[in-house]
Amino acid sequence: MNKIDRYIGNSVLWAFLIVAVVLLGLDFALTFIEQIKRVNDAYTIQSLLQVILYRLPGKLAEYIPIASLIGTLMGLGTLAATSELTVMRAAGMPIWRIGFAACQPIFLVSLLGMGISEFVAPMAEQKANLIEKVQDQESGAFSLTGGVWLKADNNFVYIDAADDKGKLYGIQIFSPDEQKLKHITKAVSAQHIDGTLWQLNGVKKTHFASDHVETESMKNADWNVSIKPEHLFLASQEPDTLSLSQLATYQQYLHQQNLDASQYELEFWITILRPIASLALVLVALSSVFGPLRSSTMGGRIFTGVIIGLAFQNALNLFGRMSVAVDFPPVIGVSIPIIICLFAGIMLVRRRG
């Protein structure tokens, strides 16, 4: 029986790998076509390729549930097309045992995806974002979009990008005086020195007097701010670019500051429940192979897998975003489509068996 388990597992695993490579290849091509218009003297074709490659690990972790579904449909569908599943069933092998053999490689791949989400994808994604932000600055696109706004020591601070070594890029500090703007300080970058002390580099400061405006430029300037460097770094990142440990750390900080942490909670639960989502979709695929797709063509199975995967992903996004909008725990919003899929798969498998 162990040989049969390995045979089924290998069929599902190879089909999963083929689907994952195809999905990543399509994502790479479509992203390249979409982003090629951004290429200029500052943001070269090499930079674009580097950014896309850095983002592939995160895309792989994100595609694991859908690739698990389509891979299971393809792997078991091939065995069904050659009547090998029929022979296994005739020999007394129950459907649950076939499903267990199919779930084993998917579970291992899901654990690998968790490791990628924790240790590889965040660093790669953050490097990609940093390349884009730095290139935008070099091309003169110093904008107030895509970064983060903070309130620190009665000042409003905009940070375009940051790295995990305590360096900030594209800083703008707006200092109000009651209802009036006192001055604006712009800096190309900032480096943490010690405690609350930062050094601003490439500084341009604009003073707003009652009857005139003054501008001065400095190579360096000191900046005292009470926010910790690690919090500035995490605040400058999108929630989906952070690891589970970073999401948990920043959630705790936001709760301590009585700030909204729902976006970070949502991304935390989407990542941590991804292996369960993959197994739930495998059960749905298993019930389909022994049911309506038993005599279907490979193209039909792939099409069905894509439709089910898109429906599941849209439901996950819908209930997840809805939980943020109506203020109930994101873990509930993320769990609803997974639980529905899991119970539907279990009931359908029991009916087939």
From TrEMBL:
Protein's UniProt name: Permease
Keywords, sorted A to Z: Cell membrane, Membrane, Transmembrane, Transmembrane helix
Residue ranges of the TM segments: 12-33, 63-83, 95-116, 268-290, 302-319, 331-349
An annotated GO cellular component: ATP-binding cassette (ABC) transporter complex
Entry function: Part of the ABC transporter complex LptBFG involved in the translocation of lipopolysaccharide (LPS) from the inner membrane to the outer membrane.
Membrane topology: Multi-pass membrane protein
Assembly and interaction partners: Component of the lipopolysaccharide transport and assembly complex. The LptBFG transporter is composed of two ATP-binding proteins (LptB) and two transmembrane proteins (LptF and LptG).
Any one Gene Ontology BP term: transmembrane transport
Similarity comment: Belongs to the LptF/LptG family.
Highest taxon in the source lineage: Bacteria
Main location: membrane
Protein localization: Cell membrane
